[in-house]
Amino acid sequence: MTDLYIPATSDTPEINFKFSRNTLSMSGEAYPENGVEFFRPILRQLQSHLKSLSGDTIEFNFQLTYFNSVSTKIFYSMFELLNEYAKNHPNSVLLNWHHDEEDDMILDFGLDIQEDFTWIDFNAITLASA
Amino acid sequence: MLIDLFTVFREEADANGIVFYYSGILSQNVITTMSESLKQKLQIQDEKGARSRKVFSTFIEMVQNAMHYSPSMHESIDTKEGSIIVSKKEDKYFLICANFIQKQHENRIRDKIEPILKMSIEEIKQAYRAQLKNDQHSDDTISKGAGLGFLTLARDSIEPIEYAFRDVIGYENELSCFYLKATI
Q: Could you report the per-residue pLDDT of B61-101, keeping only the tens digit for each?
């Protein structure tokens, strides 16, 4: 599958899914007018990529600084997909969860992800506040 | 408007701790531009990042909610309108959003908010998590969100959220003005 790159805008994150290297990164802010419309094609590509793999290790870098409630729900589904993959191929998904040390909202969501999706190796990375 | 009157308006706003006020068209472009402005104001005012983030998040949830659910105010063009105020008093931020809604949606909104008002903060967090996991399509076909909007507001508000409906003069049978308040 060809790599997917979508540059950031003021209300959508940078998507840098290097499927060829199984390094998937997202950074920036996410509060588009229609979150489902923006993220659905991205999740579809991720889903079909995961189907094509057979145990390759995946590194996911989550570096968002703000996301609204609709995006939160979509990200939850996205990590559900990765968890399913990791369930079939143990120790295959590493999630690097970047969050500002002041940001308990993003940390709390990360802890929910960690608790609910136990097949994903969760690695919290705390960034010092700017 | 007289310059004197506008001066009073501005001075009263400053004296009452108004950090940000907007009333007018709500489009995604307007929202992203307001967000930049609010973010800069908060950075200047607030030494702690955590609270600024909650104010910002509450602001976005409120204005996007208003944009999604307010009826178009003109027949020819799809314009949504709303008002939002962010004020700071005695170390608390208050956010109030107002937008018109179709009168027939009053009960639907009330049914969503009332149960949240009865919850403790722990119950709000539990309900939030349950809704996050809920991948069933809601029976509520009008909802465009994830069903997490009001719960997100309630979770981050340090006092219970408040809401009200008021008649819209001249449109008493068709429209209501919906107010939503959070405290950070």
A: 999 999 998 888 776 677 899 999 999 999 899 999 999 99
Show me where the domains of chain A are located.
Answer: 76-130
| One-letter amino acid for residue A53 of the chain | L
Q: Do B148 and A69 touch (CB under 8 A)?
A: yes
- Contact call for A76 and B132, based on CB within 8 A: yes
Say what percent of chain A tops pLDDT 70: 98
Determine the Cα–Cα distance for residues B157 and B153; give it in Å rounded to an integer.
6
3.30.540.10, 3.30.450.40, 3.40.50.150, 3.30.565.10: which CATH number matches B3-183? 3.30.565.10
Q: Is B80 on the interface with A (CB under 8 A)?
A: no
SS3 state of residue A34 = coil
pTM score of the predicted model = 0.93
Q: Decide if the complex's ipTM is over 0.90.
A: yes
Report the alpha-carbon distance of residue A77 to residue A71 in Å, rounded.
Answer: 10
Interface contact A129-B129, CB threshold 8 A: no
Nearest partner of B95 among B151, B50, B38, judged by Cα: B38
Q: Does B28 touch chain A (CB under 8 A)?
A: yes
C-alpha to C-alpha distance for B130 and A78, rounded to whole angstroms? 17
Helix axes B149-156, B121-133, angle to 10 degrees: 150
Q: In sequence order, what DSSP letters do the residues of B55-96 get, joined into one string?
A: HHHHHHHHHHHHHHHSPPSSSSS---EEEEEEEEETTEEEEE
